[in-house]
Family with sequence similarity 180 member A (Poecilia mexicana), 168 residues
Amino acid sequence: MARRWWALLAVVYLSSLQAAARHHRKALYPSAYLIKRGAYSLINPTFLHSEEDAKLLFEVLLAGMQIQGEERPLLIPDEELASLRSVKTLEVICEDVVPKKLSDIRRLMAKLAQRRRPLGWQDFERTVLTLVYSSQILSQISNQHQKELWMETLVQLVRAVQRDLTPS
């Protein structure tokens, strides 16, 4: 009996990996479907699962969360908030899923512009975090041309989120 459960579990696991691989090319955030850090639970990570998680995200943002570049992905000044277990998932999302390059974000914008259906809650969460990252980058740029490119991208992200929130 136990062998059957393990066999069933293995089949389910392998089929989910195959589905993730097939979905990888169509996904708005394909990096979310790659195994990160050797943990199956981090395939397609999400932070928001409840109203309490939404309140926690708001609190983390108010505390001054900074989504940074490659070397240190997430900075949360409040050490107590930063030490929470659920915030570790947020770190994985900000480090491994949210696009950081302007070209990647613009590619995401093109995909968002083609969508006719509302975003799934996971993609909505990631789009909002991409919006947060873009606004933080924009505030740090001094080159006028780069500033204009990031501003255009930020406006498009705001429109995508607004479009998703507006009932059709």
